[in-house]
Amino acid sequence: MSLLIPEAVAQDGAPQQGDPMITLLMFGGLFVFMWFFIIRPQRKRQKEHKALVDSLAKGAEVVMTSGMLGKITAVDDEYVVVKCADNVELSFQKVAVHAVLPKGTIKGINQA
């Protein structure tokens, strides 16, 4: 007799297994959950960002992922040239553009 570990009662030697259909339903439910709450929203954001990058044009005022504001002065296949101050132009990859601002936003911020 063990004082710390209770002895097994009526053990038949083989572990009991549940219904395999329940297991399949659980895996299916997990996949559906991941699809609607993780994969689908991420794909939607990727499509929106690709549309934004494809629509970049000269003269657009943008916010970069670093938080820098600027006006696009040139657009290439993979890069944009952004004017962020007088006589200061920087080259960035197109994917580094976070958002396009309405016209006149930068001028309004500089005056404030």
TrEMBL record:
Transmembrane portions of the chain: 20-39
Keywords carried by this UniProt record: Cell membrane, Membrane, Protein transport, Translocation, Transmembrane, Transmembrane helix, Transport
Entry keyword Cell cycle: no
Keyword Ribonucleoprotein found: no
Membrane topology: Single-pass membrane protein
Principal subcellular localisation of the protein: membrane
Cellular location(s): Cell membrane
Coiled-coil boundaries: none
InterPro entries attached to this UniProt entry: Preprotein_translocase_YajC
SMART domains: YajC
Alphabetical GO biological process terms: protein transport
GO CC annotations on file: plasma membrane
Family: Belongs to the YajC family.
The name this protein goes by in its record: Sec translocon accessory complex subunit YajC
Organism encoding this protein: Umboniibacter marinipuniceus
